[in-house]
Batch of 2 targets.
Target 1
Amino acid sequence: MVKETLFEIQSLYRDTFRVTGYRFGKGEKAVCIVGSIRGNEVQQLYTCSQVIRRLKELEKAGKLKEGKEILVIPSLNPSSMNIKKRFFPTDNTDINRMFPGYHLGETTQRIAAKAFDIIKEYVYGIQFASFYMPGAFIPHVRMMKTGFEDVEMAKEFGFPYIVLRNPRPYDTTTLNYNWQIWETHAFSIYTSNTEKVDEDSAKLAVKGILNFLDKEGVLTYAGHDGYISQVVDDKDLISVRTKEAGFFECCVKVNEEVHKGQLLARIIDAYEGEVKDCLYAPWDGIVLFMHDEPMTYEDTAVIKLISLRENR
Amino acid sequence: MITTVASVEMPLDESLKIQKNRIMPEEGKDSGKRISIVTGIHGDELEGQYVCFELIRRIEEQKHFLTGTVDIYPAMNPLGIDSITRGIPAFDLDMNRLFPGNTEGSMTEFLAAEIVKDLCGSDMCIDIHASNIYLTEVPQVRINELHKDILVPYAKELNVDFIWVHGANTVLEATLAHSLNSRGTPTLVVEMGVGMRITKEYCYQLVDGIFHLMQVMGIWQGETITPRQPVISDNNDDVCFLNASVSGVFIKEAKHWEKIHKGEHIGDIIHPLTGKVLDRIESPVDGILFTIREYPIVDEGSLIGRILKW
């Protein structure tokens, strides 16, 4: 393993902005794994650190295949995480809205360009991504339907679900989308949280990645194969929305099977403590996503269910 | 008449309300036309606040000249304006990347969908922005090349200094203007001034232009100004971008919206710790500086200015 500074940008007073990479093996640029891009992606960074730890062990044990290179970049934005800011410190822009980047452009366009020059060469690209709404997920692989997505390959991670969705206008500047356009097999991995560490889902993600790398002939890993992934289209997910604002009290857990009419959550009046509203399952399903902040607004999709086959 | 366009309850005794003020003509004078003035999508852009105030004040003063409906939406992102936040607070989202919204989506997407529903059908919409806290802009209209044939004639009536027809960009499809234009509601995006400030001269200039446009559209019968002849650029190669070569403190020397020659001094990037000039910025072309950096701290790559080439 070689630890190196992939690129850096001088700051005015702060320490230099450095993006660090860990290279395992030499030869074909096989896999690039990217951890956090936003300053609040703590779980994504943690999971990436665990990937690096496991790859070091496997390298020591001689389990990495000859002629294959793995590059792991734990963070493309250390400056933001160090000051607990989600976006770039000076201009509040999102690096994951700047790909493929522009070398003569603004700071985050330059960061994206410098990064993308390095990471676009790889056959497989894996990013630990985060959702724009606060909440917990069943770990899954998420893919955009660009025409380049390879669902069968995504099953090699052995995660319970693969979620497909149509790209939206803003997606065209994300890392995942551009990886796909540049013909890298790109996968976004969602573990359970963003701003706090969940060791169990990080372990599941690390195992999934090692499974994938084993099946693609990048290393040898003799772990459990994981799940037979179910492919779900994002438009088929069932959103359960709030009709009131207040404390959010969830009555089920992520990954729980729920039945039509089952109580999913209560909304509690923030001043008087009374139950203002109850949210019930509109269909039988599995809880894929659950809002995980103590409070909620009105008209917010707080739960997303995967419809059970019997509903269809 | 002040009405609520969309409303969402917040947890603690507060409603998020997007409101508009509808000013109707006196009885028997309605041409049936409607113009909508929108601002405050970005909570740190305040130039439009004074435009809304001044527009209402002047209409009310001479309401007998009004022959159509004027809808004024001063705060599309009221939480942002009242908390000095550019995006939507709590979500850290750029509201102008959420349109056309989704009534089945998150609360923010729901609000965006309600806004689009309310604005659709206007004969004209003007979406007023104020750059951001980093840059000052001369009053200008920005038009996506996809909609230039419809919008440039309207923009010429708006008394701005510059019309910039820019290339199509997929990301911009999520803006309010694109959503409305693609639904047949002509929408002009105005950029002027700087974030977190109000430049009264620019506001008066635009208000004069809005009255003139209303007159052209048959919504206003009173006298209006003769609009300025704007410079129009519809070639991306006409605009030269200046980006900081190093991180430091930018000290401006050039004047905004004045002709500048190749090699002329625009400013310096200095380092207060060492006392050194890190970079002397000179114009690479002959032109006119229509964007200039206002906020001094720069990183490598930060936008210093934009020059329209002669």
Target 2
Amino acid sequence: MRIVYPFSAIVGQDEMKLALLLTAVEPALGGVMVFGDRGTGKSTAVRALPALLPTLPAHAGCAFGCDPAAGQGEWCEGCRRRHAEGEAIPTIERPVPVVDLPLGATEDRIVGALDLERALTRGEKVFEPGLLARAHRGFLYIDEVNLLEDHLVDLLLDVAASGENVVEREGLSLRHPARFVLVGSGNPEEGDLRPQLLDRFGLAVEVSTPAEVAERIEIVRRRDAFDRDPEGFAALWHAADAALQDQVRTARARLPLVELPMPLLERASALCVALGTDGLRGELTLFRAMRALAALDGIAEPDDALLARVAPLALRHRLRRDPLDEATAGARVGRALATLPAPTAAA
Amino acid sequence: MTSLGLAAGLLAVDPVGLGGAVLRGGHTPAARAWVHAVTSRLAAPHRVRRVPPGIAAERLGGGLDLSATLVTGRPVLEPGLPALAHEGALVIPMAERLSTEAVGLLTQVMDTRSVRTERDGVSAVRPAACALLLLDEAEPDEPSVAASLADRVAFDLRLPPGAADPVADAPSIGEVAAARERLPGVHLPPDAVSALVAAAASLGVASLRAASFAMRAARAHAALAGRDLANGDDLAAAAALVLGPRATRLPLPPEDEAPPPPEPPPPSSESDQAAEPPGAEEERELAERVVDAATAAIPPDLLALLAAGAAGARGGGRQGDASTEGPRGRRVGTRRGDPRRGARLDLLATIRAAVPWQRLRGAAPGGGALAVRPDDFRIQRRWRPSATTTILVVDASGSTALNRLNEAKGAAEQLLAASYVRRDAVAMVTFRGAGAEVVLPPTRALARAKRALAGLPGGGGTPLAAALDCIAEVQRQVRRAGGRPVVLILSDGRANVTRAGTGGRPVAHAEALGVARRLRADRVEGAWLDIGPRPSAVAQEIADTMGLRYLPLPIADAAAITRVATLARDAA
């Protein structure tokens, strides 16, 4: 297997790294969209994620990796049947899947289809799970999501929203759980994204090439070191990655205990109103993101600083489309934050 | 050694690390000679594959090999061209015409050094570390090779016109092979990274891949020279080849302003690295040398642009930025779907989809009818054959600039927003003073449109003929890309500058009429909005000659212009 560039060795790009860590803590945030120039480490960061994520307990022998701790309603048909037949399904630990959706993938491979080999050689109808099954309980990464064909985008959004994949083919009819965090990347200069698609991503970040020469030197130097000796380089950063993994694990345990004070929630709502973000999804995401960050950083008394850190992530892609506003969306969120009436006693 | 010969040698030494090259200047014998020079020196010259123009996604990304599957009775993978070129090279003629999808597939191959196939029931990963030799045959005004691909290869080369043999002086096969042996042990001096990164910064090269490529090129250059430690010559040569052609601005003249170095020499990277205090002087010298070498290698045409301050203003983008965007009419894919809903059945793809399942469906082997199920239906996926590009032509001359330019800008903004909703493309031409200019090549990317519109100046004469020439050119581009151009002219039509850039109303008008007749023969569509204070007979005459609808709008505001524009677009 190819050794991937370690997450903790990525220089700068703090906003993108934060967004990915937040979804690692709280998968219900609903995905990350990364906009940015070429060569800014978008793909690198996503492909480095698995090393940061604690392994998952899963049913052995299950193609979907069903969660033993979840209720039976969340299991696939196979696991339910095994359970009904009285089998004590053994549990294994497996790494969190991060599935890369290649451009040019066809619908049958995404949703799953009949196993072609079995059909050809033995004339049997057996379901072969697709990429959605593989991504269950993990991440589905679509590089250059703006280049993906529209009908595939619709399909992915539908499954991402319902958490379930329904396959009807060759008289085969089945459904299986498919809950995953959608991570997309794209370069807005190469074609815009449909607003409906954008809204489905919980968080959005904008990355750009760093302008600081010292930072650029460090990036190039590390990249070169990695290219010349991937194993050695990865070993150098192993401890840092392990520390991050610990942080994520602690944050997950802490997350259910995080309470946000009422005044802060009110201010977050006021911000959404001021920005005119449509629907409640933005608000909900904003709350969840604040909780996740509080858990990640172990913040005991969440205040406005927390809101200011996650608001651009949660809201920048939900602003009413004013395609010709000169300010970047992130700047508009910042502006609205600054003009919110002063907190009563929250800060 | 010429830069072409040297680049060929370096590529052959480290094809995967350097990623390949863009070779601009047409598919000439010289271009073929250059490609041969590279491929014949590779360690695996037999692993070279040519990508035919208009290649289908499954040929690039791999898919089911139907005939082999039927013969063997089990699924057989057709691995995709990049996998066949593993450790070799892919030669891509007409690289500027690659479909968006093909560009995306190739960038994934470059990033992962493998081909991942997930289609038609097969799932596989094959290694595909190869160099891309992108032959860009675009005319000067056309979109060139996709920027995302150009960014992933080290070299951007231009064939000088009429070069007899551009690679006569390339390193020999033996020299290249020896260098390849030596390469893993070649090191760069510690200050090389900062020198190259600083040089890239001072030339306005935004992508960080450039500096990485320059490091690799320097190592390959040192290997060719038989050195284990690269020196200033290697770095200078690498900077010239990799950074020069990517420049988006000229470096500031050194030592002119404040005594602390104006920009390039970095602050010795925080002193945490094993720094060498006494070497600071040398370090600066090296940085300067690298910048000088790169600057000297900026191609003359680009240099002229940069000197005029014209290229940087466009966000560092050369025209290639537009090329991954927009439909390419010819490339039509298929998808699963219901042919009854007005879509067109793709018969061949449908049969292909049905064939592997015949045994399962109990069809008589070796004969009888094909059992086709609704699941097999494949319909043609079209890149919206009627995708419209609105060519907005804005008269920014003195006569309009006074009172109407802001309205025209407002209308342009609203049009852009409307096109965005419809996913149409927009191009913009402005004319004033001595000539006309395409300020925005056809694009669907709003970010670019915004920039182009923001700094639009007004004033000067009305060079109408030049503007119409520009329209003809953009219209041709749009049609070649499979789109449908609709022209929208906002002008009072009072031409007073000739093509030659001199004054003279009668001559200017006559010239404009001449181009207008040509445009009519070209079947131009659209409307002319006369935004002068009074309807003008000359504007109407030119519009009628072109066959455009003429609409005097003496008091229109931006909203009214937009309404008319939308009407014109839908009616045309």
